[in-house]
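Board notes (copied after class):
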Amino acid sequence: MDCSSCYHNSHILCVVLVLSLSVGNIAGFNLSTISFDEGYAPLFGDGNLVRSPNGRSVRLLLDRFTGSGFISSKMYKYGFFSANIKLPADYTAGICVAFYTSNADVFEKRHDELDFEFLGNIEGKPWRFQTNLYGNGSTSRGREERYQLWFDPSKEFHRYSILWTKKNIIFYIDNVPVREVVRNDAMGSEYPSKPMSLYATIWDASNWATSGGKYKVNYKYSPFVSEYKDLVLEGCPIDPIQQIPMASTCSESNARLDTADYTIITRKQRLAMRRFRQRFMYYSYCYDTLRYPVPPPECVIDPVEKERFKDTGRLKFGGSHQSHKRRSRRRSKTRVVSNNDDHIM
């Protein structure tokens, strides 16, 4: 499809069609799903966590009293974490739906974290999302990227996945890689390397999630519901302190991880990732010279991207999920001031 023939008003639609066509040519992953009780447990807001009758799916609710969340029953050192997720519809400003790995409950001052964070919006405006990572407590060095989606995530389920290996990290949406972080020696301990759990949460992030806090959660529209099904936990459980495998099959599990179809980015996938990042990424920490005059060591600087993103810094971010349970239980009354909040997309 040639976008050069599109009129200005239909340009975005044309871009979406091009990406959708390229995504449609990518084969789905070969995944084994589990039930909720096989791999997860409630984290907080138990009354707002609703299992399906067959236990294969779960809903998380946010109301004026509390958010909710679940956590994997075990911790993993490297793995593949995935779910089909559907986000709340209509007015969702101030809401953060997070799907992430972390070990903050065990390593409070030097925790690791890998994030998908979906940021709600006012009615009629699209959801946005960001990816992020922290290693060994490097919470002062956020590695956020922000994007739009090429679909409405509240209309139907889409698969979101995090691959974490000793060599690289890949964030996937519907089998399309949207971000890859390749480990290098200069990252040192800031590359996540300690066992982590998988989390899913919905909570009130009114002080930063939408236009830097300009638009808050409106509980007139509650409860807000995020849905999860086709859950995947691939990896070998590890004791977080002794880091001793909890099963003798870790070598088999690691071998499966190393040879799985989601471990290697194919040529088609890399092309789809490039198209996605060219069209839908609107912030990257690698080009935010206000935060990082010298880009962090894992950044690969593209001169074209650098020119495109030269004015995209100075957004507001929510930081680590280290205190997510406390923030989720009670709406923050603290207003954080920013002179250059990101605008409604």
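Comment from the instructor: The domain at 29-329 is CATH 2.60.120.200 (Jelly Rolls). The helical segments are 11-24, 36-39, 250-259, 267-280, 303-308, 324-329.
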